[in-house]
Amino acid sequence: MELPPIKYLVLTHHHCDHSFGMSQWNLVSIANYKTKEYLKTYQEITYDDEALELAKHKGILNDFFVTSIKNEIEDRNNFQPLTTELSFDGEMTIDLGGITCELRHITSPHTDDSTIIYIPEEKTMFLGDSLYGKRSDGFNSFDDEIIFPMMDLIKEYEVEHFISSYEPAFGNNDFVSFDEHLRLGFSIADNCSSLEAGLIEYENRFDKEAPNDLVFFMKSFGLR
Ligand SMILES: [Zn+2]
Asked: CA quadruple 11, 37, 60, 68: dihedral positive or negative?
């Protein structure tokens, strides 16, 4: 496949597993202004053991990131993360000639600096980590007041192919089914006081055991 050379690098959010590799790409880099603010915070800290503990304490890095940084970055004393060259506020469109990239800053349940990228000519949307929640007490956590407005916003686009960070590309039917299961998981979690009660509620409604994704959503909306 003959592809033109890559010109731009767009960050989907600031998390170090999505931004620390920037130095390996000699490209014009772009992020929303909020991501740029977080990247500045990454630049203001050092990466020795003591500083990493402090960064964890301050909520700049979580346990997983600290462990990954210790494992992956060999020369932490001289490590200096980069920031992007360009930033935008709200939305930005890049006309690549025959193909367009529409960047949009959204608040997702994962971070408040998520950027989604829509390619109208291809009806393709890059979601980054937007569909993932936050880690809380060892569990995935979704904030209903954030995830449902985000799902509604994504549904305004005509999308045939979704690209999410950690799974194979999926189509609109899968997205709709994800959305329905998510809302069902929330409605059960909202009505029940425990995971056990939630599982019984599901069984009563559908006459079968709750599938894994429903159990995951119930837990993500707080059932234990
Ligand atoms: Zn992330």
From this structure: positive
Give me ligand 1 centre to Cα 58, in Å: 18
Q: Rounded to an integer, what is the distance from CA 201 to the centroid of its chain? A: 30
State whether residue 57 is helix, strand or coil.
helix
Intervals of the chain under pLDDT 70: none
- 189: enclosing H helix or E strand: helix 172-191
Tokens of 87: 């930033």
Distance CA(36)–CA(11), nearest Å, equals 10
Report the separation in Å between the CA atom of 110 and the middle of ligand 1, taken as the mean of its atom positions.
7
Query: 108 CA to middle of ligand 1, Å?
Result: 10
Count of residues for the chain?
224
Q: Which residues pair with 119 in a beta bridge?
A: 124
pLDDT in the model for residue 1:
75
Question: What is the distance in A from the centroid of ligand 1 to the CA of 20?
Answer: 12
Bridge partners of residue 110, in order along the sequence = none
Q: Which pair of tokens denotes residue 62?
A: 């979580």
Interacting residues of 61 by C-beta distance below 8 A, sequence separation 6+: 16, 52, 55, 69
How far, in Å, CA of 200 to CA of 124, rounded? 38
Asked whether the beta carbons of 182 and 151 are under 8 A apart, the reply is: yes
